[in-house]
Amino acid sequence: MSPGAETRSDSSQPESALEASLTACHTCHQLVRIDQNHQQQKLSCPRCGSAIHPRIHNSLLITWMLVGLALVFYIPANLLPMTRVVGLGQTQEDTIMSGVIYFIQSGSWYIGLVIFIASVFVPLLKLTLLMYLLVSVQRKSQWRPRERARIYRITEFIGRWSMVDIYVVTILIALVNLGTLANIDSGPAAMYFATVVVLTIFAAKSFDPRLIWDNIKQEPTQ
Amino acid sequence: MDATHQLAAQPLIACHECDLLQREPATADHCNVKCSRCGAALFRNVPNGINRTIALSLAGLILFIVANVFPFLSFEIGSQFTQTTLFTGVREFYSQGIWLLALLVFITSILAPLLQLLLMLYIFIPLKFGRLARQTRPAFRLLQHIRDWNMIEVFMIGILVALVKLTKMAAIVPGIAMWSFVALIFLVTGAHSSIDGRVVWRRLERAQ
Ligand SMILES: [Zn+2]
Ligand SMILES: [Zn+2]
User: Is residue A107 part of a domain?
Assistant: First the structure.
């Protein structure tokens, strides 16, 4: 049995684990007792050995930094060429957007839409949602925590789909470079773009959704 | 088999997304248990989950080998005929000196799914026979992190887009590796979602 498992009173008032001087291990969900000055401590889970943080340290600061960096890299990722095709004496460079436009003009508009959503829209949406969550936590917003928890889950889920264009380039260079007709290189944008995806994944991980609920004074009856 | 271990008094748990303390609800089979306050998925009750995870992981491992050994796509322009494997793109990135992209694609499309399968087998095969693998704790921790980096379903979308882009240039024939890869997506997902972490941790607790 977990330590302190019987500490909760049977009142219907919702109580966070932290208020009960407990915290759940993120890996195995074991409840662990923590002291008041848990900020200084380095705790590890007695059951699975994971490091335990009642809240992620400097969650807001780290998330802001990662989001900011991702926004900076997002610009060259979209402006610089993603692929460079050298063939028959001429060179053609494609950015993400020119690739989208190519697909739309050549009739495969749905493929163009997939790339647009995955590469342009999703990263921006994810960063916007994360910034909204950060601001709402900093302003101690009381607005619909359940909806914001859902927004957090969306940011966790959608980020990976931005990798689509990286994989397209991977397959293109794998296939085409084996022949001798044309030569495809990945452009500098591929690197920036991959960096954006990785940064946003870490940004979503460093945001602690429990902070949304720490601010909620009274549970609205739903 | 674990249902008998759940006694009448349900243990307290805290939601990992909102920190609400709550009693673990007694659940029906195949039921996703959600946090009563924020709706986060707490755990999933899968009857026979260990056997499912092992079976799907073993099948997945075989398909993983097929997907990586056999030709993935064949590509034909006129008299030219080329074949690629899953690894070709990674090697191309590496030979172009873009090692970071090579690494990222390698991890997300090859290493992470492989590790995920191996870790599941490493943890659950001994567990099935009432034993514990020596490194169950770190293995389970790694398993939960590695899942986020397995992006083979996204890779699949990338393949579809690349195919549409290239069909106008050349005849492209998907190889046996590609069909294995598609099946692998479902097997890995199925194997992982059959895991009920509580089973592992209760065994660990009893072993202590
Ligand atoms: Zn733990
Ligand atoms: Zn919750």
Answer: yes
> Across all residues in chain A, what is the average pLDDT?
84
Cβ-Cβ contacts under 8 Å for B9 (sequence gap 6 or more): none
**pLDDT tens-digit series, residues A127-157:** 999 999 999 999 988 888 899 999 999 999 9
Q: What one-letter code names the amino acid at B52?
A: R
Among residues B31, B167, B177, the alpha carbon closest in space to that of B110 is found at: B177
- Residues in chain A, how many? 222
Cross-chain Cβ contact B21/A20 below 8 Å: yes
Same domain, A100 and A34: no
Cα A66 to ligand 1 centre (Å): 27
Q: How many domains is chain A built from?
A: 2
Judge whether A8 lies within some domain: no
In a domain, A189, yes or no: yes
A178 and B88 within 8 Å at the Cβ level: the answer is: yes
* Rg of chain B over all Cα atoms, to the nearest angstrom: 21
A85 and A149 belong to one structural domain: yes
What is the reported pTM? 0.86
